Amino acid sequence: MKSALLGITMAAFLLTILAQLVGGFPLVFTGFRLAGNTLLEAIPLIIAAFLLIGQLQVILTPDRINQLIQKFSGIKGILFSAFAGGLFPGPPYVYYPFLSSIKDKPIPFYLFFSFLSGKHVYDIARLPMEISLISPGIALLRNLISLPVPLIMGWLSYRIISKGATCTYFQEEKSE
Amino acid sequence: MIIPTLILLSLAVVLLLYNYRHKQHLDGLFAGINRFLKICPILLSAFVLAGMLEALIPEEFVRQWLAREAGITGVFLGTLGGTLLAMGPYASFPIIASVYGAGAGLGTTIALITGWTLLSLSKLPYEVGVLGIRFTITRMLFALPFCILCGTLAHFIEVLFL
Q1: Domain span holding position A11
Q2: What is the mean pLDDT of chain B?
Q3: DSSP string covering chain A, please?
């Protein structure tokens, strides 16, 4: 988190300097004005989003999702793990350790595929941010267009790569 | 923005009531506040970054490379841009919004978001570390055509219907 903050603050600082060099104070002022306007417009939505995210975090614990994901396989499993991925709370440093904790269990890898794609595409905790920070219309369209993506990706990996393979199939290379 | 705010607030209230029945509503409330406070500095920096980007990106560049007229080129550039946006949603979304606000086409914007969600380099170290390089490359190879496909679809929706 600290490195992310440092990186983005540095980038903002560098762009402010660049704006000063390119267009002087008026351009820097325009940049800050644009930032302020967007922030003021988005703040009620951001607060509402975090209220929702907090309550979701309590309901969707990694344990609860882990129990469910192990019950399903095949097409049903792809559907379930994609949506479970979408419901799974937390940033990469939360869900990758979760996957790490179950990767040695006899779970077919295509479920990992669809879980990850589901997390990346559907991520319900990110949706309020997408709505508030980009726009409700674009968020709706993006979600509608990409709705089948995790399912197709899971199905393709199920059909193309060995169906019964678990995650160790991909890790053989490590031991070579 | 009022309607989405009300929808999110209503959902939050419904979940709060659900958690209240299980005596976990305060945990949820604190989790939300805690997360907000943690993210706040990133969010503020991201807004400044996005504002500066919006002020700095020349309109001519957007028209030529990213606007609706850029067509499929914009979709490819959007996918590439999304992959390179190695930041979390709080930082990336304001930037994507500023690119869209500067006049980028719908296809480019959707390709940016899809590229960021499926291919973003920010998740790579975690994925490679946990699931291995082979898994990561295979997943990315599967994902790449979908980013272009989603952007292309959005581009045609914009051209034909909007």
Answers
A1: 1-42
A2: 83
A3: -HHHHHHHHHHHHHHHHHHHHHHHHHHHHHHHHHHHHHHHHHHHHHHHHHHHHHHHHHHS-HHHHHHHHTT--HHHHHHHHHHHHHH--S-HHHHHHHHHHHTTSS-BHHHHHHHHHHHHHH-TTTHHHHHHHT-HHHHHHHHHHHTTHHHHHHHHHHHHS-TT-BTHHHHHHHH-
